[in-house]
Amino acid sequence: MKNKILLYVVFFAICSCKPQNSKQEKIEKIKLNSRENEYKKLVNKEFEKFDINRFNKHKYESGDYIYVLNDGTQINEYGNEESGYFSEQKPRKSLFVISKGYYINSGIRAKGVKFGNVGCVLGIWYEFDENGRLVKETDFDKPFKITIYDIIEFLKNSDVDLYANTTSVNRFYDEKTKKGTWTLHYLGKFNDDSGKLIVKIDDESRKVQEVIKITGRRGEKEIIFEKK
Q1: By percentage, how much of the chain surpasses pLDDT 70?
Q2: What is the pLDDT of residues 9-28, one digit of tens each?
Q3: Which of 106, 92, 108 shows the shortest CA–CA distance to 42?
Q4: Which of 88, 174, 193, 204 lies deepest, with the highest CB count within 10 Å?
Q5: Which of 97, 86, 122 lies closest to 13 in space, CA to CA?
Q6: How distant is the alpha carbon of residue 25 from its chain centre?
Q7: C-beta separation of 113 from 99 below 8 A
């Protein structure tokens, strides 16, 4: 629990082998999806407060409090009066998680949406000062050409369980080079290979750059695809 709290404290403080045959060429490029970014509707810029009294009354010995709303949304609250408070809200049957951090005075500090419990941040994140004023809006989607829906489609075609703990999506944008990279971790397939894979994708070209397969219990790795 301490490590989990530390992770969010840091985040809110800074608020993210060669081809063998022609068959592999069919999956090298990510297809673009025109689907609307529905997850952007999950958060807004309104000020809100964390109910500290309710949390302290119901929290478990582990330090968190998990409950489910009538609409099926699961909420996990945790934190303390030293590091602040946090909330993870996962709507029923959703791949997206609403993440919120609060000051020790219970006022909202930052909020936004992630893909999965430990996945990349998505859409617009809102940051507030201790007086409750909205001080910053950051659109984490802006620099990327590939959308999360493009990635979801790729994962589905790779026989991946999108809800599994073994599935995670991360992305990075280099301000100096103006290039973005996606890194996918999943249990599934890539062409004729299957298993625990790490897939790296170039955002500009939308092409798979490298596929690494975890081959042993100790995390041994093997490159099974590399773009020249």
Answers
A1: 88
A2: 545 544 443 333 443 444 56
A3: 92
A4: 88
A5: 86
A6: 28
A7: yes
Q: What is the pTM of this model?
A: 0.85
Q: In the chain, what percentage of residues exceed pLDDT 90? A: 78
Spatial contact of 179 and 186, defined as CB atoms under 8 Å apart: no
Residue entry with tokens 């939308």: 206
Angle (nearest 5°) at CA 104 between 62 and 49: 95
What does the alpha-carbon distance between residue 95 and residue 162 come to, in Å, rounded to a whole number?
Answer: 7
Cα–Cα distance for residue pair 98/105, rounded to 1 Å: 21
Q: Are 107 and 132 in contact (CB under 8 A)?
A: yes
**CB 141: neighbour CB atoms within 10 A?**
18
What pLDDT is attached to residue 16?
Answer: 44
Model confidence pLDDT, tens digit, residues 59-81: 999 999 999 999 999 999 999 99
User: Which residue type occupies 157?
Assistant: N
- 108-167 pLDDT, tens digit each: 999 999 998 777 999 999 999 999 999 999 999 999 999 999 999 999 999 999 999 999
29/26 Cα distance (integer angstroms):
7
